[in-house]
Amino acid sequence: MATMTEIATIKTLTTHYIDGAFVESHGRQVMDVVKPTNGQVIARVTLGDEEDTRRAIAAAKRAFASFSRTTKEERARYLRQLQKAVSARIDDLTAVMVEEYGGVAGFARLLVESGVNAFAAAEKALQELPLRENWGKTTVTLEPVGVAGLITAWNANALFICLKLASAVAAGCTVVIKPSEMSSLQTRAMVEALNAAGLPSGVYNVVTGLGSTVGAELVRNPDVAKISFTGSVAVGEGIMRDGAATMKRVTLELGGKSPTVLLDDAVLDQAIPAALTMAFLNSGQACAAGTRLLVPKSRLDEVKRAIRDAMPAFTVGDPADPKIAVGPMVSQKQYERVESYIRKGIEEGAEVLVGGEGHPKGLEAGYFVKPTVFVNVKNDMTIAQEEIFGPVLSVIAYDSEDEAIRIANDSKYGLHAAVMGTDLQRARRVASQLRAGRVVINNMTDDPDAPWGGFKYSGVGREYGKYGIEAFLEPKAILE
Ligand code: NAD
User: Structure pTM?
Assistant: First the structure.
């Protein structure tokens, strides 16, 4: 229960952003926002409903009539305005991500900066993308697909909103954004930032609410042509199925169980810290987290030693402290989910090398778990097959390069993968055989022009660069 002083400091949010203005919610349901470091209520949010969503869709539809006819130069100018507006708020956006979500400060800043950079990257990609081609008596134009619903997960709110919005604006689409209800404070800060960009009313609208109300209305509404979704496989499947009734175009960015393939010539004092960084990325709450480490049997003992040596750098604690590498889980539910997987790993016969069940000592008040590394893991164990979405790494031993590739690909997912080794030719050869939308060699790195998205259950379609813009475009041919 909140004390009187806490009640005085609890923020209340009651508006959505529709047609260029903050408007009171029609939906009346109120949700508590809980701080993951101590479980205290820090805000109360009024959630939108179907009526709020329909108003937002109507505003986006009105704006589409003129926005869809803007030139490349006009869209490029809007993207520059958006970038300037959001970059002015990097500190606030980082601070609210740390507070509401428990993201560790350094990584939260990186995610926000990636969001800011998404506008510049989209502008560059737009300039390079031919929107009109001619041959003979044929003209092909790439037309904006229509009003798009952008539905996002809670684990990188600022990045998802900026990335999807940047691609949609570059394509000439207008949008209704439905961020995760668990990112309400972050969304409010982002919308205030976007509002300063001065885009025409209705180009982007933001309704905070539940997936089952706001999200479902976007998916079934015939005035929405496209859904760009980031979230779980279960919800992604539902969006594809329910969206079929109105022939929705869909981009689905879903989960992962990413392998890191350590080749036998890897330099362990570099490779192991890099592998642990990928495993514990965003406190393990990252779709791309490298949660399966594939190790040659001949080097298993060395790897175990190197992991124990590297672990002290992955300290758990207050995410606002710059020395901290792993913060809390976002919610009690997420804490329990991660704990249940750690229990399951032990029950199925995997061995805890570091970490294990329960809160780290002294961090009992928040949703903190112990960063955990399992060894003696078989790839068919639950902890090696299912996405845990917490800082839990499974070490799996292999005999040969072929076996490593087979194990890496023996997953329903195919989002991200890593290969580590000294012989680059060999690392490239292995990378080329991994069934994943993105493979990094020797370290996690990024390129805003490169596509992002998954094979298999990790999704449908791609984001970033020209691939992300094309996802909001329809080719149209005129033949004389
Ligand atoms: P989630 O699927 O529970 O929710 C995602 C969004 O969908 C939220 O905004 C939610 O309100 C909404 N939603 C829920 N039910 C809906 C419905 N019936 N119709 C429409 N919308 C609905 O996922 P989450 O827990 O927020 O995020 C974690 C998941 O997201 C993990 O699986 C993770 O791997 C994935 N993810 C993927 C990427 C990627 O780029 N591939 C990035 C980040 C997270």
Answer: 0.97
